[in-house]
Amino acid sequence: METADRPTETLRAFARRLCALPPSCGPVRLVAVDGHAGSGKTTFAGRLAEALGGAPVVHTDDLATHEEPFGWTGRLQEHILTPLSHGTAARYAPYDWVERRFATTPRRLDPAPVILLEGVGAGRRAVRPHLAHLVWMELSDRDAWRRGRQRDGPELSTFWDGWQPSERAHFAADPSRPHAETLIAQREMGYAVLTGPAVTTRIDPWRHPA
User: Fold this and answer.
1) Is the distance from CB of 153 to CB of 38 less than 8 angstroms?
2) Residue 209: predicted pLDDT
3) C-alpha angle 117-151-64 in degrees, rounded to nearest 5
4) Regions of the chain with pLDDT less than 70
């Protein structure tokens, strides 16, 4: 897939640009990190959080369940987006994938200048109105799934057999990549920060600073 040329910038520079965006969810700049399973979203979100000075990261895996791998929008809205939009602390019970139930003790999430939402479908249609920025991990589904299978080993091959058609169906109905302002491509030495499809047809604020 072709992308517009753009000079690579460090994560710290990218973090500064994110902090300069206007808040999108109450006082919070909510930034989604989306991409195929196995594309490196969690690792990248962790490194970006460090560059942001310890920004909180919400993982959609904490909101999804075995029965509803993509049915977490309501929980996100009720327990996280609504409180943050009012400038108050959010509280949500993360899902335990071993015990197959939600934790009994909720996790507290205070408003912060930037909060990262990481996971497959984090940039979905229902979430985008609350986002300050949408990041897409630029790796094909085939390569991402192969990497995910290698990471998880044969013990989870049954999970992947069921996951792949579910993910394919989700992105066919509700694609995120066309709405991403930034694409992140992993390189041998760090990451390349590229202009996303959402800004190729209008003036790119990242390339044309005021």
Assistant:
1) no
2) 36
3) 35
4) 1-9, 200-210
